[in-house]
Design brief:
single chain, alpha+beta, Alpha-D-Glucose-1,6-Bisphosphate, Chain A, domain 4, 7-stranded antiparallel sheet, 2 helices, 7 strands, globular
């Protein structure tokens, strides 16, 4: 079995600066229930989705208009057998200029198909990146309820 890290990507008409700005505001595209600072190097913040999922993140790399990396320091999934599945994972956003467009490549290093949560996480990340984050970049408003 090929147990690769999860990745998805989008191409948008906006500039790398606009993409970078959107990524660093996950309250607008991932969850309004994020507490803490999300747009500064070494900042730690918390994500929560009801009683189903909680994570503590740390911003470990920021290259203006090119890259953002989060480290998952703590994680809880209501229905996962192994609560450490995400712990230590790096969530990366690589921003690449493609002619007059910008490509965003999202990768979660450590989220692999053998994880209990993989199917649900694949579905969720794909939706959040390809629908909510893409909408935030293009229109200034994320689609936090894309899954409803």
């Amino acid at each position: 079995m090929n147990d690769q890290n999860f990745t998805t990507s989008i191409v948008v008409d906006q500039t790398p600066a606009e993409v970078y700005k959107a990524i660093t505001n996950p309250r607008a595209w991932w969850s309004e229930e994020i507490t803490g600072t999300t747009d500064e190097l070494n900042a730690e913040w918390n994500y929560q989705f009801g009683d189903n999922h909680r994570s503590k993140m740390k911003v470990i790399e920021m290259i203006l208009d090119k890259k953002v990396v989060w480290l998952v320091e703590e994680n809880y999934f209501k229905n996962a057998k192994d609560q450490s599945e995400w712990v230590g994972n790096k969530i990366t956003f690589d921003i690449l200029k493609q002619g007059g467009k910008t490509e965003l490549v999202f990768t979660q290093y450590g989220l692999v198909s053998s994880n209990d949560c993989y199917k649900a996480c694949d579905w969720a990340w794909t939706g959040f990146v390809q629908q909510s984050l893409q909408s935030l970049i293009a229109t200034g408003k994320g689609k936090l309820d894309w899954f409803k």
